[in-house]
Amino acid sequence: MRLKTRAGIVAALLGALSGACVVGCGGRTLSAGDDAGGGHDGAQVSSSGSSGGGRDAGQGSGTDSGSDRWIADGGVGREATVRDGSSGSGTGSDSGGTCHGGVCTPGTQQCSDDSHVVTCGSDCQWGAPWPCATGICSANACAGTTTNAPASCASGGPGLTNCGPDAGESCCTSLEVAGGRYYRTYDLADGGLAQYGLADGGPTGEADPATVSGLRLDKYLVTVGRFRQFVNAVYPDGGAALPDAGLAWTPAAGSGKHAHLNGGLGLANNGPEGGYETGWDTGDDSNVAPSDAQLLHDVSCTWTASPGTQENLPINMVNWYEAYAFCIWDGGFLPSEAEWGYAAAGGSQQREYPWGATDPGTANQYAIYDCFYPSSECWAGTVNIAPVGTATLGVGRWGQLDMAGEVWEWILDGYKSPYAGPCADCAYLATTSLRGFRGSAFDAPENSLAAPVRGYDHATDFFDFIGFRCARTP
């Protein structure tokens, strides 16, 4: 692992098992056994195990500058053996949410006809038929791809309809992810971590089972161009208004739920309050303020005050509330952590990386990370951030790109470690100011690319290394 330095940032990961301070401790000592818990001083990243490294944050929002940017735990390794040999059916005593006396296993699906799918709820009963957005149900799942333009791509143009290697695909392309079962936590065999003194847990590290119903997950990260359409909708004058000028649009109360699940109730809440997903809280409207002052807050921000050459870059400097609101406005929702992790792991394949076990290399073919893009040097500004979908060999099992690298991605859940018990179409929705993110970033080291790695920060914070993508009904 190379050490990279830019604008006061020194990156080091999993290298301080002896108890000494890691390079880039940001003013406090981190050693093996330290809790990788989050605070308002910067984003935190972990997998399972004890903390093993730290990173100095040369940027952040407000007073966060110079704080610990993130921490990563041990326990990340190479691809785990699939122990049950399943194809994601959600069966088995540890699948999360199984029950006795029911007619189906929670999270599993079947076609009710050639264009509708039904999902087994947490009560082990089939729910109401749901129309496939693609109009096709095959092999017990919605099938195909949708390119029907959501609001953010309706007008067409840079960052809206010119994604992909030939610049001819809708940036709003959303791909079906077939539902199934997987382990949210897993040790991976090898992973090249011997150099850091970490023991290999192997496949016995599989834990925290979850079942996930089918959904659509956007192929690309949300681009600057797409987010610009949202800003134009939110602010009455297209984003030039002062933050106190009022908003032209805010999410409706209760919107943003996974309405196709549990008879319209949404995801089950496996936080202490229980119940189901409540959707958008209008009390959070004031946290949606994507003004130029915020979006241009950092030297590495991808936003520009007017459309320019960066419309195909992933939007950053967006807080969790704004990511959630965007997805609602765009006709979708933020993916839950179980959904995002399932897609990144390739479901029951429990992949090391979203694309498999191939080493990511340094040629930007699999992932944009560690400042290898475009020329192995870290630079101020957006030089190290690539247009979305650049790393085409990094495609996941269901076709999504940039699930590792580019920017971390906000998810719906609050953060809890370890995970809160078995899960069947669930999210951790406890009242908390901490929200999770997944996926690694353009300047993060290779270890952070592994599919199980998790991170979190305060929902109101915004950084140059966090963006998001949306999910949609199947």
Task: Write the SSE topology.
Elements (H helix, E strand, L loop, with lengths): L4 E2 L2 E2 L33 E3 L8 E2 L11 E3 L38 E3 L4 E4 L10 E2 L5 E2 L2 E2 L2 E2 L27 E4 L2 E6 L21 E6 L2 E4 L5 H11 L33 E2 L22 H4 L24 H10 L7 H9 L62 E7 L8 E2 L1 E2 L6 E5 L15 E5 L7 E2 L3 E2 L2
3D architecture notes:
The protein has 474 residues and is mainly β. The chain has one domain (109-472): paralog of FGE (formylglycine-generating enzyme) (Alpha-Beta Complex), CATH 3.90.1580.10. 7% of the residues lie in helices and 16% in strands. The chain is built from four helices and 23 strands. The strands form eight sheets. Strands 3-21-20-17-22 form a five-stranded mixed sheet. It is globular, with a radius of gyration of 21 Å. The chain starts with a strand and ends with a strand.
